[in-house]
Every structure is written in structure tokens, then in C-alpha cells.
Amino acid sequence: MLKQTPSQTVGPYFAYGLTPEQYLYDYKSLAQNDLVTSDEEHIVILGRVFDGEENVIPDAMLEIWDNQNNLFGRFGTGTEKDKSFVFKTKKPLSMEGNAPFLSVILFMRGQLIHSYTRIYFSDEVKNATDEVLSRIDNARRETLIAQKKENYYLFDIYMQGDKETVFFDI
Amino acid sequence: MSQSTYNPFDMEVHPPRLYPAYKSTVLRAPTQPLVLLKQSLAELSGPVFGDYNLGEFDHDLTKNSIKNGEPLGERIVVHGTVFNENGQPIPHTLIEIWQANSCGRYVHKVDQHDAPLDPNFLGAGHCMTDANGNYKFYTIKPGAYPWGNHYNAWRPNHIHFSLFGVNITNRLVTQMYFPGDPLLEHDPIFLAVPPKGRDLLISKFDLGATEPDFALGYRFDFVLRGHSATPFEKL
After folding, report:
1. Cβ neighbours, 10 Å, residue B65
2. CB count in 10 Å sphere of residue A83
3. Which of A95, B53, B75, B115 could be B215's S-S partner, Cβ–Cβ 3.0 to 4.6 Å?
4. Mean pLDDT throughout B165-180?
5. pLDDT digits (tens, 9 = 90+) for B6-17
6. What ipTM goes with this model?
7. Please, are residues B39 and A95 in contact by the beta-carbon 8 Å criterion?
8. May I ask the CATH class of domain A15-158?
9. Which positions in chain A touch B224 (Cβ < 8 Å)?
10. Residues B29-64: pLDDT tens digits?
């Protein structure tokens, strides 16, 4: 067996390489946060990423992956006024009777290796019987569930503290 | 048919999440144990970038943002192969890179280091591995630069790499270093990698890849998480 190449942090200066158009650099982005055409049915997910002192993290990057709709999105938390991330995408579908979710890969300065989490949706009845959610303590399960608001879902991510988001070992 | 399960991150070589000498980890590393997830179709799939039309010079950072002349600094060729742990090459996978210029300055707007920007060098590029898992970039050797982690802290010369591999368990963001860099032994980001993994992050000078009268060659191979195939049905 070959040895895996070790991970290193994405650092603070990824924007012109990984999310150039979002940050207004003169270079082509290979991934965006708007994953639908304008007339398609879609959802909006937004939120912020917080550190252990509940400061908003302005230099994180999120990637979302929806395997059934074959949609991949990427967005940095440095351009919105409140340092939130925003994705416009299709609502994922239920797989094998479980609740629908999006896979999330999270990068930032101060993370030597990326984190994986999932976004579930508060208006899905299947959350109650989902194989993954039902294995997680009640107290922490809510950290994986985006809350439905009037016209978007809110999904804040806490790296540490009482509200620390569940991260997965995949 | 067989069902593959991808191996976990090998923590003998990966850095820990919390490494206090790299101060930003203190408030940003998750503190709760990770929840082990059985790999489903969501984890055993990932974005495919094969359909993207890469520009002619996307892999050549010495040419992809020329405004009025050649970028300054030492031209280099960085090449290698992307493998999985099983030693199988990974073809047609996207590699993205970004780096400081030869003076140690990033184009990023929040980089406050007062070294000069180079109008002819952006420092970003991407390419796909070929059918045999090989990749090649032309670029300028990045400079060292100071950072605020501790008194007189300097990052060694490095190039940032982002790789996708065959599914999201393969995702890797890392940094490639250069042989003989005296700053490596003082850099907490590099030293966060356990001793067994450190050499894996240092490229090798490659005379064979060096292009006469043009550019020095460096080889840097990648190894992404591999799999154990478990047959569950007799053929």
C-alpha cells in the first residue's frame, strides 16, 4: 500500500484560485453557488460558520455535493455582508427511504484537514426515521438540520462549543 | 459485483485537527469525536469535471495572466502522478493550484505583506490528469512570506493543491514544499504532519523533467484514499 498524501490547510488565500469569480478576480471559476437555471424549482440555503468564541468565520469555504441531482457547489464566506454562505440548488431526493440531505465539505484556515457534515431539512418527515440521524444524540441531531424559514433554509455551522455541529468520519 | 469501501484517513500521516502551535486551530478544530458514517452512494460518488473546457494556458501559470510581459522569478515545471493507496493511477481528475508569486506575495486582497505584486502573475491554475493519472504545471517558484502566527514566523515556499479523486472521500487539499527548505523545521503547519508523513509533502528535484534553457523540474506524486473491494456476490 502507498501512504496517503497528508492534508494541509486551505489557508486564508484560496479565493483567487478556488472561488475567483465570487471574489471578483479575473479568472474562471470551475464551481459556483447557483446550481439551477432561473426557472427551475429550487431552494436557497444560507448560514454562517462560527469559531469556538462564536465569532463569524470570514474565510471558510464550503462545498456541497448532491449525488442524485449530480450537483456540486462551492462558496467562500468572505463576500456576503454578514459573511454567510449561500447556495441555490435543487432540493435533494430521498435515498433508500432515508431523509434527503446534502453532503458538505468544509475548509478553512485553522483546519489542517477538511471536515465533512450533512445538511438535512426541517420540513422532512423522514428525519424521524433516518438511519444516520437516529443514531445521533437528540441534543446534537439538530445541528445537522437546516431550519425552514419563509423562503430559505438556515444552516449555521459551529466548529466548537455547546452548539458544535456534528462532523462525520467518512 | 463488488462493493468498495474507501479506507479512512491514515492518521499516521495526516495532521491532527487540533495542533496548538498553529494557533488558528485552537478555536476552529472540532472538539467532539467525529461520528463514523457508513459510506453510502453520497460518499461513494463525487463531482466529475471531465466536461469542463480548460483554457489553453490553465496549466501554465507563466502564461495564463500575462498583461505586458513575462512574470518575474524562477520558472519551474511541477509534474507527477495521482494514485490511490492501491497504486492505481487516477485518470481525468481535476487538480487546482494557487500560490504566492516569486516575492512571496499573494494576489488575494487581504494579503498585507508589502512584497510587490507581479502584474503578469496571478498564481492560480488547474489541469486534469491524463489517461495515466499524470499531471503537469508550469509556474514560477513561489517565495517565502511572513505570517502572524508567532514572532518572526515565515511560511516555507509552497504551492497549494486541491484534488478531487473519484469520490468525496478522496477530497484532498494540501501544500507541496521544496527540498532543502530551511524554513520547514520552523513551520507549524508543516510540523503538524506526523514525522512519518512529512517527506510525502516535499517535492523532489527532477533533472529528467527539467527543460534545458527553460525551467527546473520537480516531481510530486499524490496518493488519495484507496479501497478494499469486498466481493458480496459470486461471479
Report:
1. 20
2. 17
3. B75
4. 98
5. 999 999 999 999
6. 0.97
7. no
8. mainly beta
9. 4-5
10. 999 999 999 999 999 999 998 756 788 899 999 999
The two beta strands, B227-231 and B94-99, are unpaired
Between CA B99 and CA B61 the distance in angstroms is: 10
pLDDT at residue B51 in the model: 58
- By C-alpha distance, the chain B residue nearest A15 is B108
What's the CATH number where B104 sits? 2.60.130.10
By the CB < 8 Å criterion, does B41 face chain A? Answer: yes
User: For chain B, how many structural domains are there in total?
Assistant: 1
Q: Please report the sign of the dihedral spanned by the C-alpha atoms of residue A27, residue A29, residue A34, residue A39.
A: positive
Q: Which of B109, B141, B139, B143 is nearest to B127 (CA)?
A: B139
**Sequential DSSP letters for B98-163:** EE--TTS--SSTT----SPP-TT---EEEEE--TTSEEEEEEEPPPPEEESSSTTEEEPSEEEEEE
**Residue ranges of domains in chain A:** 15-158
Handedness of CA A164, B194, B105, B173 (dihedral sign): negative
Residue A4, chain B, CB below 8 Å: the answer is yes
Closest CA to A121 of A93, A84, A83, A80: A93
Q: Grid coordinates representing B146?
A: 511572513
pLDDT, tens digit, for every residue of B96-110?
999 999 999 999 888
What residues make up the domain containing B29? 2-231
